[in-house]
Write a structure and sequence with these properties.
VPS50 protein; about 0% strand; SNARE binding; Syndetin_C
Length: about 130
């Protein structure tokens, strides 16, 4: 057994939590179809994850908590709000943004709006290069 000093343990926990949260968003971005109830379940699952984390570690605030919550809540945005949201949230990958728009297609975003939003994402991606 090797004893890990508390500051080192906290850094390890922070990196593990950050990686787990980034992995959650990546997993959510791989969803092909999702209903409002499905997104609500994602929020509940994430809340359960946070409750378990808070029992395991004293790290506060939870790293990248807002990153996950913001992504889940973006599903509910209207077309105009999503356009603005996409432009303001450059922290998400092109794939994550594209999949978000595609999953919303048919539920509350039509094909024309989808094309417009995908063009916005493409413009942002080009500007990053």
């Amino acid at each position: 057994r090797v004893r890990i000093p508390l500051p080192v343990s906290n850094i390890l926990w922070e990196h593990c939590i950050r990686l787990a949260n980034r992995t959650l968003v990546e997993g959510y971005a791989n969803v092909k179809k999702c209903s409002n109830e499905g997104r609500a379940l994602m929020q509940l699952d994430f809340q359960q994850f946070l409750m378990k984390l808070e029992k395991l570690t004293d790290i506060r605030p939870i790293p990248d908590k807002e990153f996950v919550e913001t992504y889940i809540k973006a599903y509910y945005l209207t077309e105009n709000d999503m356009d603005r949201w996409i432009k303001e949230h450059r922290e998400y990958s092109t794939k994550q943004l594209t999949n978000l728009v595609n999953v919303c297609l048919g539920s509350h975003i039509n094909k024309k709006a989808r094309q417009k939003l995908l063009a916005v994402i493409d413009d942002i991606d080009r500007s990053k290069r």
